[in-house]
Amino acid sequence: MTFYASFGDKFRANIGAVAAMRRDVGLAAGLVLAVRLVISFTRNQLSYGRDRLYDIRTGVDTVHDRGVGAEYPGDVAHLDGEYYERVTKSDFKRVMRRAQVPVQDFTFIDLGCGKGAALLLAREYGFQELVGVEYNARLADIAQKNLATLRSGGEESPFVSVITADACDFSFPDAPSLVFMYNPFGRATMDVVLGNLSRSLTESPRPVVVVYMNPVHAEALDQCAALERVAGEPQHQTLGRRLRRLGHRYGGIDWVVYRATTG
Q1: What is the CATH number of the domain that holds 123?
Q2: How many structural domains compose the chain?
C-alpha cells in the first residue's frame, strides 16, 4: 500500500468517526473530540513520513502491508490474523520508556513481527537477543532481509532470529523477556498465546514485560492472572464520564504495559 492510499483510508475513517461523535454527544463535545482526533491523526502521519524516510535512507522496507490479495497471490492469511502495520519510532520510544526493563538482560520478542520494524528499532536498545515470530512467510522473509541489510552496512547487532510460525505454536524462552505486540491477531489466538505464556511462567518464574500497542483485545490480558497492568495511555482524552466512555470507543488505549505477577 502506498503512503497516499494509506493516508486516504485513514482520513476517510477519521471523518466517519467525527460524524459519529457528533451524533452521539452533540456538536460542541463532538468538535472537542474531533480536534483531538485530527491532531493525533496529523501527528501520526508526520511520524509515518519520518519513518518512510528512514526506509529510504537505510535501504529497508518496513511500510504498512495489508498483503493477501491479487498483488500477493502466494500469501496465506491466518484466520485470526491482522494486517501488518508499522510501529513508528516515536511510539516505540514512548512505550520503551514506560516498560522500564534492564534491556541488557532481556530478550525482545515480537509476536506478529511482519516486516520487522520493531526488531529494527529494538536493535538500538541493547537487548541481549531479538526474536521475531511471523506467520506470513513473505513478510518474515522481508524482515530477515531488512535485518541483513543493516548488518551488511556495518551496524553491530545482538543475536537476531525471525521464525516463520504461528504464534500459538511459539515456545517462550526461559529468559527474562519483553513481549511486544502491535495488534497482531484476534482474541482466539490471543487466548492461546496468553495460556502458553502463563504455563511458561508457572514452570519457570522470571521477569516478563508485555507491551501491547493498539490493544484491541486488552481485556484478555486484564483477565490473565499471570499478568498485571502497570501502564497505559489513552489515545484521545475526553471530557466527563460519558465522553471518557466515548473516547474509549473512538480512540481507546493506544498502548498498555503489563508485568508478570511472578518472577
Answers
A1: 3.40.50.150
A2: 1
Q: Can you tell me the distance from the alpha carbon of 133 to that of 131, in angstroms, rounded to the nearest whole number?
A: 7
Q: How far is CA 190 from the centre of its chain?
A: 13
| Contact (CB, 8 A) for 137 and 87 | no
pLDDT in tens, 93-118: 999 999 999 999 999 999 999 999 99
In which domain, by residue range, is 158 found?
61-260
User: Whole-angstrom Cα distance, residue 209 to residue 178?
Assistant: 5
Task: Please check whether residue 116 is in contact with residue 146, taking contact to mean a CB–CB distance below 8 angstroms.
Answer: yes
In a domain, 55, yes or no: no
- The separation between the first and the last C-alpha atoms of the chain, rounded to the nearest angstrom, is 42
pLDDT in tens, 122-174: 999 999 999 999 999 999 999 999 999 887 655 556 789 999 999 999 999 99
How far, in Å, CA of 64 to CA of 47, rounded? 13
CB-side exposure of 252: number of CA atoms within 13 Å? Answer: 13
Residues belonging to the chain: 263
